[in-house]
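Worked example

This section walks through a single chain of length 318. The input is the sequence exactly as stored; nothing has been trimmed or padded.
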Amino acid sequence: MQTISHFVGIDIGKSSLVVCVMPDGIYMQFTNDKIGITALIKWLKKLTINAIAYESTGIYHRSCEAKLNKFGYKLIRLTPSKSYYMMKAMGTIAKTDKIDAKNLAKIAMNWDGGFSQVPSEKLREFVSLFSVRDRLVQLHTSLNGDVDDCGRVAKDVLVKTQKDIDKSLKLLEKKMKEYIASDDNLSRLFAILTSIPGIGTITAFAMIAYLPELGSIEDNKIAALTGVAPINRDSGHSNPARHIKGGRFKLRRYLYMGAMSASATHFAEFAQRMRDKGKDSKVIFVAIMRKMVILANHLVRENRTFEPNYQKKTGAGA
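Given that input, the structure is written out below as tokens.
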């Protein structure tokens, strides 16, 4: 008897899980809680599942994702914007939970990319801490422009708020260091990243939080995920300059500062060669960011810290 491979799409809402199984076109609905997720898993066990696609919906997808991952299913977590454009390319105009679930199942059927990694509970907590830190830093920066443009009372309030933010930032950084120290895998990852020229404590935190794929995928893919891979737009005889696009823009903000520092140390010769070719500083820093990410990818994959002669061994340096 021939075994039929099935592909599943799940439209995850706050209170419900609408499921479509292709190629059969079967629909089911479960509650998005412990009871409903357990029932979903029990039902899926009756089928041969090749892949499951769903959208990232913040806190609402996490419990279901963690349970599916625990049972070893291959997961495809899509950002809402990515799934929107993929569904649009399929010619979908109407939108309901069942239509979305069906289209997600179709995406799973034709998926040729990698599968999503599900962070551990400890890493998820670390990511939330760093995300809060990120928002507080942005708030602190936005208040700087207001301090000198307001009255005395308002200025006192703003200054006090900034001091409170500074205290919160120190507390968050202390907690993140404790999380790193309490987990052997995170501790080793942190040691590897901070051994790389240009990557300090905060940049390493950002890479751990925003780039969990480090060491598990190819160099060109890790560069594209970060958004530091030049994208060509050639057409006929037109051959315009290449630019970076997309990727993890939050991570790039931290890597950019690291690249500025590394351009004067480990990547100084590389930076000078690019200047000699007439490249401007921003292009040079982005190129160094790409090298830093690829170098980190190599080191994490090989589970070793940076060595000054690493370039000669692998060609991944300057």
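What to look for: The mean pLDDT is 88.
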